[in-house]
Amino acid sequence: SHFLSLSVQAKMSRPVQARRLEGIDKNIWVEFVKLAATYSTVNLGQGFPDFPPPDFLKEAFVGALSGENHMLHQYTRAFGHPPLVKILAQFFGKLLGRDLDPMTDVMVTVGAYQALFCCFQAFVDEGDEVIIIEPFFDCYEPMVKMAGGTPVFVPLRPKAPKDGKLMSSADWQLDPTELASKFNKRTKAIVLNSPNNPLGKVFSRGELELIADLCVKHDILCISDEVYEWLVYDGKEHVRIASLQGMWDRTVIIGSAGKTFSATGWKVGWTVGPNRLLRHLRTMHQNSVYHCATAAQEAVAQGFQREFELYGKPDSYFVQLSKELQQKRDWLVQSLDAVGMKPIVPEGTYFLVADISEFKSDVPDVPDSDEPYDSRFAKWMVKNKGLAAIPLSAFYCGPHKKNYNHFIRFCFAKEEATLKAANDILQKWKQDKTSP
């Protein structure tokens, strides 16, 4: 009994969780990935391809593992495998029209996700404000809060398209006055995501110049999440904000091999920017993950080497992938439009947002519910129709969540068979609705 009473006393009663974790323990992906795994026959939810990466990339990884260079099984340089940072510096130097130093202007991370985490931890202090454009990739908000910062939201506002045309992601725009009103002396950074997840919006040069002018005027940083930089459609141009006047010095560019080469599980990402910013990211990196998987970095380096030589040519994977995905986008747009789930045609990315208003009659409204309607709709749809998607309200925070709760996000980076199966579900659903 003496032992028992000791063990009762030994139980911890003081709170164990760090204050910075309070209120950010919920994560939409944990919930929806689990639902999709349990119920879905067709998963257009989480953003990953269900087709393989290109052969040349898989061969490079196999070669790295089974080849003569046994050092590829050991640590490499902590801030990036030398062959990878060299080709990234060459490649992005060409795209940005400047000389990049591979040792100081590039850092490799565990996917773009860790790159984001490093940025917020390295730059944001208690009380700093960070401007986030809604809808936003959902991790920006908790990551800002974990660093002690305050997220400040500004929404893209949709304008109705003319004469019954489908809406495009280009119809969602920042209000310049509203945007300018969010900048003040506490503002430390703005997060830009172009092409944008979830809308697929590709910010135009004019929109980026508006943001750049405000950054320069208020002397703030830009964290530019460009993981979908190659996935741009209809001949649109991806403009890099770091190439605009006054922006190189204050921008960290974030990229992803997962999105670039359709290998999201490899978790190789990078940051590109001036040494005066990247040195602080290196401090974060060396005190958290320290190092990323060597063989994956070697394979990605070889992939970029190939793409550097084929840049802009029809054989380039970057050219082929965006062509292929544009076709998949068009299929999904057609099949959603045919059943009345109005798609917003994306200019880039893997994603397409659709308006579910015409399907509301199928999913009863629960008055006074805390849960946004689109979230209940998406859960109902995966359980009853076997089709998984993500509610758009997950990409909003605070006051705007309620205004954008009749949209859901689909991922179309999928095999033809997957998209066809989704189309079959939608067609049958529509027939069930209309048949007496």
Automatic annotation (TrEMBL):
Organism the protein comes from: Pelecanoides urinatrix (Common diving petrel)
Quaternary context: Homodimer.
Domain of life: Eukaryota
Family: Belongs to the class-I pyridoxal-phosphate-dependent aminotransferase family.
Compartments (UniProt record): Cytoplasm, Cytosol
Primary residence: cytoplasm
Requisite cofactors: pyridoxal 5'-phosphate
Catalytic activity: 3-phenylpyruvate + L-glutamine = 2-oxoglutaramate + L-phenylalanine; L-kynurenine + 2-oxoglutarate = kynurenate + L-glutamate + H2O; an S-substituted L-cysteine + H2O = a thiol + pyruvate + NH4(+)
Cited Gene3D superfamilies: Aspartate Aminotransferase, domain 1, Type I PLP-dependent aspartate aminotransferase-like (Major domain)
GO BP field: kynurenine metabolic process
Protein name per Swiss-Prot or TrEMBL: Kynurenine--oxoglutarate transaminase 1
Gene Ontology MF, one: glutamine-phenylpyruvate transaminase activity
Residues of the Aminotransferase class I/classII large domain: 42-422
Gene that encodes it: Kyat1
Keywords: Aminotransferase, Cytoplasm, Lyase, Pyridoxal phosphate, Transferase
EC number: 2.6.1.64, 2.6.1.7, 4.4.1.13
Pathway assigned to this chain's UniProt record: Amino-acid degradation; L-kynurenine degradation; kynurenate from L-kynurenine: step 1/2
One CC-aspect GO term: mitochondrion
Coiled-coil stretches: none
